Structure formats: structure tokens, C-alpha cells
Amino acid sequence: MRRRELLASVAAATTAAGCNGLGESLTGEDVREAEPVTVETIDAPGSEAGRATVPEPGRVTFVEFFATTCGVCASQMSAVGEAHRQVPDGVQFLSVTSEPVGLSISTEAVASWWADHGGTWTVAADDGTALARRYGATSVPRAVVVAPDGTETWSHAGRTTAARIVDEIRAAGGGEYS
């Protein structure tokens, strides 16, 4: 099996296990102290095609892991969108899919789903699932907040509220984002 097909299989299995499942890291290792991961950003509302380094050193980072096949993820978009409207531009704020973009789903399909569900911030694809492994995102939706020094300060699987996301971002920034 070719490497890309293997990675697609792992990503598909991760997505299939998602929508409220809980689990350990994909490798069984604690990979949260690893170097930042580069993801491919997608041309969609509020997002431009390119790359993003996650977490971005020196900034509070919020990442929401999602899948276009997850109904809970779709319903969570309004809370994430409300949180995005409440935090300042100084926060790195993005949503990431570990679906095998380019294999079982196209970039255009992700962008279309994004637009249909009101996304207005950066959206990216985690090709190879390195970011998902780093944050133990074996299910979706999963929200993660990272402090400017790279320390993960909060992680949550399943639904949450905009207020909780904003509170966790503020806490990670030492109150700077009040």
C-alpha cells in the first residue's frame, strides 16, 4: 500500500471513530510537546489557500478539529463562529480537518461545506494527521487552546459553547484578551 493511501486509511478511520468518541493519541505516544506542525490552508470564506504553522509561536492558538461527515461538527459551527467574532485578531483561530483531502474528499467540497456552515475564519487540511496526533484528536469535534509558549491549556471533545471557548482563550492569554 502506498504511503498516501495508508495515511488516507488512518484519517478515514479517525473520522469514522469521531463524532463524540474519545480516545488516546493515534500513536499511543505523548506528542503534545513536539514542534509546531504546518497545515495546508484552504481557499474558502475567511480563509486563503496557503500554509499555517500551528501553534504559531508567541500567540494564543485555538484549533477546532472537524469532519465534513460529522453532524455534531456542523452543529458546533455556530458556537465556534460566535467565539471567533468575540476574540481579537491577535489569536490564531482555525478549524482543521484530518479527512483525506484530495483522495476521498476534494478541497472544493471542504470549501463548499465551510461556506454552507458559516465558516468565516481559517480552515485547513491536516494532511498526514500530524496535528491531530499532536493534540490527541482521535474524535471530532475537538477544540484545543494553546498558550503563546506552546503549552496546551485546554482541550474538549464534543459540543461546547462560545462562552467557554472565549473564556479558555482569555485564560491562555493571561487575561490579555479580555
Architecture overview:
The chain has 178 residues and is an alpha/beta fold. 31% of the residues lie in helices and 21% in strands. It has five helices and seven strands, in the order H-E-E-E-H-E-H-E-H-E-E-H. It has helices spanning 3-16, 71-86, 107-116, 130-134, 162-172; strands at residues 37-41, 50-54, 61-66, 92-97, 122-125, 142-146, 152-157. The chain has a seven-stranded mixed β-sheet. Helix 2 crosses helix 5. The longest helix is centred in the middle third of the chain and has 16 residues, at 71-86. The N and C termini lie far apart (50 Å). 43% of the residues are buried.
Task: Considering the chains and any ligands shown, give keywords for the structure.
seven-stranded mixed beta sheet; disordered N terminus; 5 helices; 178 residues; alpha/beta
